[in-house]
Specification:
two-stranded antiparallel sheet, mainly beta, 7 strands, single chain
Length: about 110
């Protein structure tokens, strides 16, 4: 895992989730050694959620009704929060993930 100082630097936009994949097992259940990269080819992978974005962006209905001369500024966008939280264990499809490397750590 990464430390808190590094986690503070990561900012995700929108409905994105940053997952730290589980470390690959070097052996199978029967004791055979696996070459590097075999686990990465699995269609389903898992890992822990490291960071989440603010959520799904939707228009703010209060901003639409705001008069142009109003002095109280409002944010034109609101966010529907994501269901996942930091520290959750996630199972995901490898095809839907994008691999990112940050400070010598691989994330999906």
């Amino acid at each position: 895992m990464i430390d808190i100082k590094t986690r503070k630097k990561l900012i995700l936009v929108g409905d994105k989730v940053l997952v730290s994949p589980d470390k690959e097992s070097e052996r199978t259940a029967h004791g055979l050694y696996l070459p590097p990269g075999v686990k990465e080819k699995d269609k389903v992978q898992s890992g822990y959620v490291v960071r989440i974005g603010p959520g799904y962006a939707v228009p703010n209905p209060q901003f639409i009704d705001q008069e142009s001369w109003s002095t109280t500024p409002q944010d034109p966008v609101k966010y529907i929060p994501l269901q996942a939280e930091e520290g959750d264990y996630a199972i995901f499809l490898r095809d839907a993930a994008i691999e990112v490397e940050y400070e010598n750590e691989k994330y999906l």
